[in-house]
Amino acid sequence: MPVRKRKISYGRNIIGHFPSIKMDRMIFYESLIERDVIRCLDYDPSVFAFEEQPLTIDYEFESKQYHYTPDFKVETDDDIYLIECKSRAHVDDEENSRKYAAADQYCRAQGWAFLIITDQLLRNNYRVQNIEHLTYYARHHVPSNVEMHILQTLRNHNDWMRLQDLMTAVSPGSPVAVFMPIMYLAYHHHVFIALENAPISQESLVCLAAYTPISHQKIGGLL
User: Fold this and answer.
1) Per-residue pLDDT tens for 168-198?
2) Residue 146 in this model has a pLDDT that exceeds 80
3) What pLDDT is stored for residue 211 in this prediction?
4) In CATH terms, is domain 16-122 a member of 3.60.70.12?
5) φ and ψ at 210, to 5 degrees?
6) How many CB atoms are closer than 10 A to CB 223?
7) For every residue of the chain, which 3-state class applies, written as one string?
8) Mean pLDDT of the 143-153 span
9) What's the pLDDT score for residue 223?
10) What dihedral do alpha carbons 155, 161, 163, 167 form, nearest 10°?
11) Which is nearest to 35 in space by CA: 76, 72, 80?
């Protein structure tokens, strides 16, 4: 749970809570950058745990004591990260630079890594946009017979299929009826749709996730 007292903002910051499927609780955020990062962490299968405002780092500057609380601690299959979410315009501010240097030193001592994710990285990022789209379907109920039909269709095809072709093959009379179930299966990694190069559309290629070795980039594919 967060170690820092939450701020009540009446300015430009956007505060709220994100209902995390992975962590099974509401995750607090204080900016749209944090919200988008949470969404990506929740989706990425290489991330098995994350926590907002996880710890406070003490550091000294000009004989004075200061404190810094990173936005997230993230545990992946093989690494642990502390993450700061910040507008690119403020990353190099003098005070922030001192905070980040202290965080980097702390992480190195723990064998972790410190990362900064900016709005510049998230802007016009197809992966971020597509994960937002998939998240909308993440909690929908999919009947087991529909799920089995979709997976068996892909298994029989044994290759990539256009999303439109898959929908038509599964439900010839009403292809749109299986759009939501396919998005649900994509969110939960039962089927694979490439997210990086274009928005999800009827032209997107789909295959069984088991057939596609996914190379996970660090932290939700953002870096």
Assistant:
1) 999 999 999 999 999 999 999 999 999 999 9
2) yes
3) 64
4) no
5) -65, -25
6) 12
7) CCCCCCCCCCCCCCCEEEEECCCCEEEEECCHHHHHHHHHHHHCCCEEEEEECCCCEEEEECCEEEEECCCEEEEECCCEEEEEEECHHHCCCHHHHHHHHHHHHHHHHHCCEEEEEEHHHHCCCHHHHHHHHHHCCCCCCCCHHHHHHHHHHHHHHCCCEEHHHHHHHHCCCCHHHHHHHHHHHHHCCCEEECCCCCCCCCCCEEEEHHHCCCCCCHHHHCC
8) 98
9) 54
10) -50
11) 72
Tallying the residues shown for the chain, one arrives at 223
User: Measured on CA atoms in the order 122, 126, 127, 128, is the torsion positive or negative?
Assistant: positive
Q: Averaged over 65-70, what is the pLDDT?
A: 97
Q: Which amino acid is at 100?
A: Y
- The string of pLDDT tens digits covering residues 77-113 is 889 999 999 999 999 999 999 999 999 999 999 999 9
Sign, Cα dihedral of 76, 25, 83, 223: positive
CA dist., res. 53 & res. 1, Å (int): 7
Residues 6 or more apart in contact with residue 159 via CB below 8 angstroms = 207
**Cα(109)–Cα(103) distance, integer angstroms:** 10
* Residues 181 and 150 sit within 8 Å (Cβ to Cβ): yes
Task: Specify the residue for token string 């919200």.
Answer: 35
Q: What's residue 8's pLDDT?
A: 42
The domain spans of the chain are: 16-122, 126-221
Query: Tokens in use for 136?
Result: 């909308």
